[in-house]
Design goal:
This protein has eleven helices and twelve strands. Helix 1 links the parallel strand 1 (2-11) and strand 2 (36-42). The two termini are 19 Å apart. The chain is of the alpha/beta class. Helix content is 42%, strand content 20%. Helix 9 (297-309) runs antiparallel to helix 10 (313-329) and helix 10 (313-329) crosses helix 11 (343-358). The strands form two sheets. The protein has a ten-stranded mixed beta sheet with strand order 2-1-3-12-11-4-5-10-8-9, sandwiched between helices. The chain has a two-stranded antiparallel ribbon with strand order 6-7. The protein is globular and about 60 Å long. The longest helix is centred in the N-terminal third of the chain and has 19 residues, at 15-33. It has helices spanning 15-33, 47-53, 61-65, 83-97, 162-177, 196-211, 222-231, 243-257, 297-309, 313-329, 343-358, and strands spanning 2-11, 36-42, 70-75, 102-108, 126-132, 142-145, 153-156, 183-188, 216-221, 238-241, 264-268, 276-280.
């Protein structure tokens, strides 16, 4: 029996609803399989905790999380707490403290979903974005001088280290080398950002030439790349990008798929020295929080990625296949997909199809 300890952080807004869905699917998969068991500990950290205590999580919370095998997160952020407070108080410390430098976000048109891209069908678009997750444009360096005065100055520094740049690009090459077409696209903007991006380009080409000559690689400026996500999404196998570029591109990827509510992500520490964290791409969606109509697919797909990371790619595939079965059947859909069903009804349908696949 494989025993897995899971830290559950529902967070804010619809995170409470989607995390419950993800946990139900994990439990169903474990019961049906019989070879894995999940033990959960839930933490109430987030914006509500901040409003009571003045911090997003208690001091030393990383030491608490370090004792778990993996982390399942719902969403972070809610009205009344500035976004930079919520993000820098919980999510980013986890990603950085645990060296989760790989942010993996699949972009795929699932069976049963109509993409807003005309003429693109399931199977036509299927690639993964690898986003650098610990430095780059989201580095916590800079400040404000002469605040509030007419001559106020604000500086935000971008930091690219050789270690950080090499390790994320190498990870992307490794994925591309195992992809059927062996294609890797690097997002850049070296024609306008004249220090960090040429450096990124140099390392991208150095690693490709030296270690992965079999991979068909090319660099693409971020503006053109965003356009090609819409015009030529079938060209991509793996896309690697810096922190900011990867963040923006993958929200576009969620839109290509038909709803950002279906977009999943994994924050991975490849060396497995620390726990990795799995979360949907969507935010806390305060406009629908508490109504029970949030799309759970992004969270359930994140659970599928978790299972894969835990060495149970078979179970992870079965979970995602069950999601696609439900979407293809078309009887159960949440409002963002044009239906009227609830989060729980969507989850029930996925679990029922999962049972059919695993029995």
């Amino acid at each position: 029996m494989q025993n897995v300890s899971v830290a559950i952080i529902p967070g804010d807004g619809i995170g409470n609803e989607t995390v419950r869905a993800g946990r139900r699917v994990l439990d169903a998969a474990a019961e049906l399989d019989g070879g894995i068991k999940f033990e959960y500990t839930e933490f109430e950290w987030g914006c509500a905790y901040y409003l009571r205590h003045g911090e997003m999580a208690p001091k030393g919370f990383l030491n608490t999380l370090a004792n778990f095998d993996t982390i399942l997160l719902g969403a972070v952020g809610y009205p009344g707490v500035p976004d930079h407070v919520s993000l820098w108080g919980l999510l980013l410390p986890i990603r950085r403290g645990f060296e989760q430098y790989v942010n993996l976000r699949p972009v795929r048109i699932l069976r049963g979903v109509v993409s807003p891209l005309r003429g693109r069908n399931p199977g036509d678009v299927n690639f993964v974005c690898i986003r650098e997750n610990t430095e780059g444009e989201y580095s916590n360096m800079g400040g404000r001088l002469h605040a509030g005065l007419p001559h106020e100055v604000v500086v935000q520094n971008t930091v690219f280290t050789r270690v950080g740049t090499e390790r994320i690009i190498r990870y992307a090459y490794q994925l591309a080398a195992n992809a059927p077409r062996k294609r890797l696209c690097g997002a850049t903007k070296s024609n306008g950002i004249n220090y960090t991006m040429p450096y990124w380009d140099e390392i991208f080409n150095e690693i490709g030439e030296r270690e992965f000559p079999e991979v068909n690689r090319w660099l693409c400026h971020i503006d053109a790349l965003a356009a090609n996500f819409v015009l030529k999404p079938d060209e991509f196998d793996v896309v690697v990008a810096s922190n900011l570029f990867g963040d923006i591109l993958t929200d576009l990827g969620g839109a290509i798929m038909g709803s950002i509510g279906m977009a999943a992500s994994a924050n991975i520490n490849p060396e497995r020295r620390y726990p990795s964290m799995f979360e949907p791409v969507h935010g806390s969606a305060p406009d629908i929080a508490g109504r029970g109509i949030a799309n759970p697919v992004g969270q359930i797909w994140s659970v599928s990625l978790m299972l894969e990371h835990l060495g149970r790619a078979d179970l992870g595939k079965a979970v995602l296949d069950a999601v696609e079965d439900v979407l293809e059947e078309g009887r159960v859909r949440t409002p963002d997909l044009g239906g009227r069903n609830t989060t729980d009804e969507m989850t029930d349908a996925v679990i029922a199809r999962l049972a059919q696949r695993l029995r």
